[in-house]
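Hey team,

Filing this mostly as a record. A colleague (T.K.) asked me to run one chain through the structure pipeline before their review meeting, and I want the input and output archived in the tracker in case anyone asks later how it was produced. No errors, nothing strange. Just documentation.

Input sequence:
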Amino acid sequence: MARIAIIVLALAAALTAATAAVWTSPWWWWAAVPLLLLGALGARDLLQRRHSVLRNYPVLGHARFALEKIRPELQQYFIERNYDGRPFDRDVRTIVYERAKGTDAEEPYGTERDVYQPGHEFLVPSMAPCPVPKTPPRVRIGGPDCRRPYDMALLNVSAMSFGSLSANAVLALNGGAAAGGFAQDTGEGGLTEYHLRPGGDLVWEIGTGYFGCRTGDGDFDPGAFADKAAHEQVKCVSLKISQGAKPGIGGVLPGAKVNAEIARAREVPEGKTVVSPPYHRVYSTPRELVRFIARLRELSGGKPTGFKLCVGSRRQFLAVCKAMLEEGTAPDFIVVDGAEGGTGAAPLEFADHVGAPLTEGLITVHNALVGTGLRDHVKIGASGKIATGTDLVKRMAQGADYGNAARAMMFAVGCIQAQRCHTNTCPTGVTTQDPRRARALDVGDKTPRVQRLQEATVASALQIMASMGVTEPAGLRPHMLRRRVDPCTELSYAELYEWLEPGQLLAEPPASWAADWHAADPDRFTV
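Output structure:
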């Protein structure tokens, strides 16, 4: 209301000054014209639907776009010093924004990157490229115990809860998923009407708080879970064990964002900060975890069921693999969340120093499943700063079957990395429950942006793969990705990391895995 009042006052002052110019002195036109232009610009900003910043900050919001046009590097300078220490670089953000807007174009001249800098990675092109597939391949999710398998897109919306995101942001994300034929992970905040209304496919994430399927004292409620898992849009169920940006601690939703609607969806008190427990009540051993995954599959009517984690102890993950073998059942998928992933609220030390980065996490999980002979039954998803086709191809070469993107999808619906996620004052309406701010995010405008981003990113990945002589993700291998280790040496991922053979851990574990394999206990999580 304050925004509207200021614009009305400016127009009223312009009218008063114009009247004075006509009846008293023409010098009043020097005040009338600027005030009229200012009021007209503010009114236009409030009525347009493309830019959320301008709807929330009429007139003043133009400073942000002027800064971006005059000197993008200057804007990035401030972002790099105010984000979480791991921002997307300007090139990646530009690619994401342009693809979401449908203005992706070729860039002239060469790369500005130092390709001889240690750490630089590149994909290996083929002397015999393949045609780009006309239809993007999909990944069949569903092991031997799954009765209702799901064909997952190569890129999907990663876990972001309603509560962390505004209702309009969730609507736009799911609308984009519905239009583009990919899936949206609900995040741990529950299955809500905003996830269901647009009709997009869903991966329902169950966190340690069991929001949406919890008893009065916070335990898991199988009846409530079965009822909601029966929704036709729920294609998969994911048990969240840990999150990349803050493994070992539960999710946090500040009390300022817990309005009546959020409280009902999560079945928690209104206005109080919601902190999920750091651990699950439903299991305490690897064997109990595997059994609970199987139980969720049955309660959901046979839908694909898996879990998400940020990898830590290799020994503990091997214990879960042993439990899978002994119980004769396994999850249908595992999502590996890298420690470089983002979040709206996490202790800085956790974000910077706890958990394995996505590369190491993926390779650990892939090798463990290969070495125990389980890889053919369990698909692997990758989550953690996946924004471009290059990111997607790299992760699939490292062992993933598909990818999930969160921050890039937030960019598509208008996020500018203002770092106000936890304050409820997001300037673009993406991460706020303030209805006046959230209304700035126009669902009709942002929905096709989500679809375009996903479509263009997958198309880019397929084009890159074709240049490598590969037509589908299964053809990607570690030797196709190389990293410079010093100015004179570059090695492939096949040389940098150890890769196990199918069933190798069961037959004769290599020396580097033997201690962890023998110490792994399916009946306890030993460090």
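Quick notes for T.K.: Residues 70-86 have pLDDT under 50 and may be disordered. The longest strand covers residues 234-240.
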